[in-house]
Write a structure and sequence with these properties.
The complex is a heterodimer of chains A (355) and B (529). With 355 residues, chain A is an alpha+beta fold. Chain A is built from 8 helices and 23 strands. Chain B has a two-stranded parallel sheet. Classes of the chains: A alpha+beta (355), B mainly alpha (529).
Chain lengths: 355, 529
């Protein structure tokens, strides 16, 4: 249980920059998540933290202790960093209890037995101590892997795509379970995933990664509502960009009306500059920013629709031909091609300057 | 990497040596060979390969189809029992066949005396050799084709039927062509064994390259001639190797889907009966009758032959197989680890070359390794005499070195296969998981790798142990004085036509040979769970 700090960490492999200038702080006891498409460098970041990849710049600190810096790293077996692998990597020749006890080699036998029992109870596998990994289901194997990593009381737990081998339903249930377990052990944990639902369900802090860089390190709420750039806006949640024009320092006009709010400052290659007047922007509209209103005079054509049970997700064609999404309660069942009344219901502005 | 390259180089030594033998041409012997022996050898080898190829394909594919796809009485028993002929080295089947079917054998005698029937075809003929070799080697095709049918036969057949083909059409137009790479791989293995076979050819007096190499060396005392013959044989073998490797590559890409469980075709009672009789006949002729005959003969001679000399043969066999297996397993383990530490295209090729020795006939290896070791020996002796006043005629030649090297080259693939696939199960993540849990390198090897590899090591050791025990030409040609084994004893007794006295050592070899088959089927059924 310790704070994890990455300070301007870069790593190159075979001449290719895999992660670049990676910095974030994960407070003690918090659950963090690195979220990004495959190949964005998130797994490499994990391997740098666990001590299997050297770093070329910056440093990594766990609980204030430097564990990696250019040209030196503390050996993985001395880091006290637990890891849960995507394929679980359970030892097939050992029972569940022996797997969990693997890292408790130094402890006296009674203490070891007690710890094993405690962890198996924690992950809900008390009755499976003498079974072998191949006799367990995927979800059970996953919990054994977690218990094994937690057993030696590491300072930090890392999880690499921990739920990607499970079916969707189990994934959701298990991710909540895992969060409870980590909370109960007051464990600092960093999880790597490409699934934002997983990240949102688990994490206090989420770092969206793209091309080896952290695009934004923030709370899930802020990532969704205040994305720092186009990549984050596009990658996190659903939404559409429509063109708009800045009227003054707190208003943007789009074809559906005027949006009030703070105009974010976007930093580009030319430095940071607030866009104030007559400047063209793209405005992010989330599906809940547009509501269906039969009385509205503003009409949009239903171009596509997806039934989601409680609601429909409509893809709408605005009068100008731009597209927007709208979540509508499912008793409003409109046919494709029909024109429906809509109203703008956004309470803040997320806008990016047009290049 | 250096180690892997060294092993690969060792495999290439016999090839280089046999081909460089043309530098030293013994005109008389070579002329004699080219004029008289070579045409006959080539013709004999051609017909043998063709006949055995057809024989093993027909037997192997038909039996594989029946046991994998059809339901008939005793199917589950036949499924593994049909592998049993693997335990019988071809030379054992051969001398039992001759002992039984020869003019003076019990069958012909009985027919002649009791019924006045004569004129049965001579067993010591090309047809006889082909028959015996086919019965001994069909399991190679059977085993691998059965796997192909079991994993994709049902789906192929159902797809064919859904497209309007009858079952028979489905078999010939879909299932059989789909399984072709598998069948070809099995067929090539069987052909390599055919080309490598020495014992059977010696017993049948059917001249092929292996027996010619032996004669050139031990009757004509011309090592160069032996090496030149070996080089021609290598060319034949390489053709088979190329075909085999290509089929294996096609197997990787040709595999489709997975069996949705084993749904067997229900045969009509008449057909099921026919299937039972067919499979039963093959099993009886290829295994039950030979083993029963061996047992009968053994009973006749056991009182006189089960003496101290027999135990010496057995002890030598076990000792050599033990040392050889230990060597094979050690080198295979190091080679597999080398591949794990330094993966890459160069390493893959090095490993491939290093494990190519299974294709080289023992007779070729014997010659190809004897020549360089003898040369090294002479050099050592000369140097030793010059510098240390050494006085002797051989240092390495009289030892087990040549024999063990030859075993290593020939059986490295047998040991490497299971160890390499075992090592592949220990993923990088497993290593890292252990490290994260605080394991040092020693702990990683001792607590994770060794226990996880134990079964693979045991399999590798057993398979190579039994193969070395059955091995005949290498042992015969390169053994030091006094190192007679069971296989050598079989050779000596059969070359004098004393079938009964060959039975006791042969039976011991067969019993040992059954072990890996049990292992094989046991592991196979374990994988299904």
């Amino acid at each position: 249980m310790a704070e994890l700090v990455l300070d301007s960490v870069s790593q190159a492999y075979g001449g290719r920059q895999v992660i670049a200038d990676l910095s974030f702080t994960l407070p003690e006891g918090a659950i963090g998540c690195l979220l990004g498409p495959s190949g964005c460098g998130k797994t490499t970041a994990l391997r740098c933290i666990s001590g299997f990849e050297p770093i070329q710049t910056g440093e990594i600190r766990i609980g204030g202790e430097v564990v990696s810096r250019p040209g030196w790293m503390l050996a993985a077996e001395k880091r006290r960093v637990g890891m849960v692998f995507q394929d679980y990597a359970l030892f097939p020749h050992l029972t569940v209890a022996d797997n969990v006890g693997f890292g408790l080699r130094g402890d006296a036998k009674p203490a070891r037995q007690a710890r094993i029992a405690e962890l198996l109870a924690l992950v809900g596998l008390a009755g499976h101590a003498d079974q072998f990994p191949h006799q367990l289901s995927g979800g059970q194997q996953q919990r054994v892997a977690l218990a094994r990593a937690l057993a030696p009381r590491p300072r930090l737990i890392l999880m690499d795509e921990p739920f990607s081998n499970l079916d969707v339903e189990l994934r959701e249930r298990l991710s909540l379970e895992v969060r409870d377990i980590l909370r109960r052990e007051a464990m600092t944990a960093l999880i790597v995933t490409h699934d934002q639902h997983e990240a949102f369900a688990l994490a206090d802090w989420v770092g969206v990664m793209h091309e080896g860089r952290i695009q934004q390190w923030d709370t899930p709420y802020n990532l969704y509502h205040e994305p720092a750039n186009r990549f984050v806006a596009d990658f996190v949640g659903q939404g559409a960009l429509v063109t708009g024009e800045v009227i003054n320092d707190h208003q943007v006009e789009i074809e559906l009306g005027v949006l009030n709010g703070h105009i974010p400052v976007e930093c580009g290659a030319h430095g940071c500059e607030a866009c104030v007047r007559n400047c063209h922007v793209d405005v992010l509209l989330r599906p809940d920013d547009i509501v269906h209103d039969d009385d509205s005079l503003m009409l949009a054509e239903v171009e596509n629709k997806a039934f989601r049970g409680a609601e429909f997700l409509y893809t709408l064609k605005l009068p100008s031909g731009q597209r927007a999404l709208s979540l509508v309660p499912s008793h409003h069942n409109h046919a494709i091609g029909e024109k429906i009344g809509i109203r703008l219901a956004a309470d803040h502005v997320v806008a990016f300057r047009r290049e | 990497m250096l180690f892997a390259l060294a092993v690969a180089a060792l495999v290439l030594v016999p090839v280089v040596v046999t081909f460089s033998s043309y530098a030293e041409i013994d005109r008389d012997i070579l002329g004699h060979l080219v004029e008289f022996a070579l045409p006959e050898l080539v013709v004999n080898t051609f017909w043998l390969a063709l006949g055995v190829g057809i024989g093993v394909s027909v037997l192997g594919v038909s039996l594989a189809w029946l046991t994998a796809m059809c339901e008939f009485p005793g199917r589950r028993l036949f499924e593994w029992a049909l592998l049993l002929p693997l335990a019988l080295p071809a030379y054992v089947t051969a001398f039992v066949a001759i002992g039984l079917l020869d003019f003076t054998g019990p069958l012909q005698t009985w027919l002649r005396d009791g019924w006045g029937i004569t004129g049965l075809p001579e067993i010591r003929s090309r047809g006889g050799v082909i028959l015996v070799m086919s019965l001994a080697l069909y399991p190679y095709v059977y085993l691998i084709a059965k796997n192909a049918f079991a994993t994709q036969g049902a789906i192929a057949l159902e797809a064919a039927q859904s497209l309007g083909l009858s079952r028979t059409q489905g078999f010939f137009r879909v299932a059989l062509p789909m399984a072709r790479p598998w069948i070809a791989a099995g067929l090539m293995l069987a052909l390599m064994e055919t080309l490598a076979d020495f014992g059977t050819m010696a017993i049948f007096n059917y001249d092929t390259f292996t027996t010619a190499i032996y004669k050139a060396w031990y009757s004509l005392f011309s090592l160069p001639a032996a090496a030149q013959l070996a080089s021609i044989l290598i060319l034949f073998v390489l053709v088979a190797v190329v075909f085999e490797q290509r089929s294996r590559a096609r197997m990787r890409f040709g595999a489709v889907g997975r069996s949705a469980g084993s749904r067997h075709i229900r045969l009509s009672p008449a057909l099921a009966g026919l299937a039972f009789v067919y499979a039963g006949t093959v099993l009886a002729v290829a295994f039950i009758i030979p083993v029963a005959q061996l047992a009968l003969w053994t009973r006749e001679v056991i009182d006189t032959d089960l003496d101290a000399r027999y135990w010496a043969f057995a002890w030598h066999s076990v000792l050599l197989a033990g040392i050889g297996a230990a060597l094979v397993v050690t080198v295979a383990l190091l080679l597999a680890y080398a591949g794990r530490q330094r993966p890459g295209a160069l390493m893959t090729w090095t490993q491939r070359v290093a494990t190519l020795g299974y294709a080289f006939p023992g007779a070729v290896l014997a010659v190809g390794l004897f020549i360089p070791v003898a040369a090294l020996d002479n050099w050592l002796i000369d140097t030793g005499r010059e510098w240390f006043g050494f006085d002797g005629t051989e240092i390495l030649k009289g030892t087990l070195v040549i024999m063990l090297l030859a075993y290593l080259v020939r059986f490295l693939a047998v040991g490497f296969g299971p160890i390499d696939s075992g090592l592949h199960r220990i993923t990088r993540n497993i290593d890292e998981a252990a490290r994260n849990l605080g394991a040092t390198t020693a702990a990683l090897l001792g607590r994770v790798h060794l226990p996880m590899l134990r079964a693979s090591l045991l399999t590798a050791a057993t398979l190579s142990f039994v193969d070395i025990m059955k091995e005949m030409p290498i042992t015969l040609m390169t053994r030091p004085f006094g190192w007679d084994t069971l296989a050598v004893r079989v050779f000596e007794m059969t070359s004098e036509g004393e079938w009964e006295r060959a039975a006791l050592p042969a039976l011991a070899i067969v019993v040992a040979g059954i072990i890996p088959i049990i292992l094989l089927t046991w592991r196979g059924s374990n994988l299904h769970d």
